[in-house]
Amino acid sequence: MAAAHPLQPYALAAGALAFAALSVATARWEPPAPSCLAHDGERDPFPGEYWLCSRGESEFRIAPLWPWIARIRALPAALSAAYLLALLAGTRAMANRSPIRLPRLRTAWNLGLSAFSAAAFSRVAPALAVSTWRLGPVDAFCAAPSQDGPSGLWGCLFALSKAPELLDTLFLVLQRKPLSLLHTWHHASVLPFCALQALLVTGPFALGVAMNTAVHTAMYAYYAAVEWNLLQGPLARRVAMGITAAQTSQMAVGIAAAVALGRRAARGDGACRFDGTQALLWVFLYGTYLVLFLRFADQAYGLRGR
């Protein structure tokens, strides 16, 4: 069997760049002062944040976890580095082997991630929606997201979930499928990026969580449906196009939010949990994701030919 080279070298280099830059930022992090966070009685909880939530979710408090979080703050960078090394080793190991399909395991994995994303969305989105209704979008995204209660818990779980999501790539490697720049860059950068946003308690973090979990709920459910042959032919293609459009829109909204909040922070608004450096990071990462998703959409669906 002829050797295959599914890992594009520039994809590995791009992932390494993301890992290096974001790991430095994470290593310099210090726990935020409790006074800068909107929790522990500083605001009244609203019913939308607690619907269908367990007692454990409602009673969750982040403060006791900060010392532990401080000790493991370098872990996301280490996992990204291990991910890149594993890609290199895995693609070489599978180059002359037959593909390993594991359809049942892939289906269970996709359904699990879809269910997790739906649960996270149901906890984070209501709090964000009510905050946006009360304050307006710019003020709501400037404010520190809740670190306590259901939305705080699931925001933490969302950041942690980016580590197991790296296993998405394992299935591609085992199947000997090509690893694109979009896939490698996104997975290598999103783990330390989300960890950094959670550590810094940036204002638009909740927005990113809500958008990402909404898209992932549909995306992973789509993967499972295709695996089960529940979606085929033109319908599957239309659903896939819709998910790609949602992913692309997510990046555009992220860029717009970063620009708006960066302008607010530049005016010296001390209440805004965002700054110019974070705005540049958001615009850069979301900008690269946007370009790569548009490139993927054009290659997959021939957008320029329509």
Description:
This protein is mostly helical. Helices cover 69% and strands 0% of the residues. It is built from twelve helices and no strands. It has helices at 9-27, 55-58, 66-71, 75-94, 103-135, 137-142, 149-161, 168-174, 181-200, 205-227, 233-266, 276-301.
Short account of what is shown:
This protein has 306 residues and is an all-alpha fold. The chain is built from twelve helices and no strands.
Keyphrases for this structure?
69% helix; single chain; mainly alpha
List the helices and strands and how they pair.
Layout: H1 9-27, H2 55-58, H3 66-71, H4 75-94, H5 103-135, H6 137-142, H7 149-161, H8 168-174, H9 181-200, H10 205-227, H11 233-266, H12 276-301
Helix pairs in contact: 1-4, 1-9, 4-8, 4-9, 5-7, 5-10, 7-9, 9-12, 10-11, 11-12
Class from helix and strand fractions: mainly alpha
Helix content: 55-70%
Largest sheet: none
Reading the helices and strands in chain order gives: HHHHHHHHHHHH
Q: How confident overall, as mean pLDDT?
A: 82
Low-confidence stretches: 1-7, 31-50
Shape: globular
Report the strand count.
0
Strand fraction: under 5%
Total helical elements: 12
Distance linking N and C termini? 39 Å
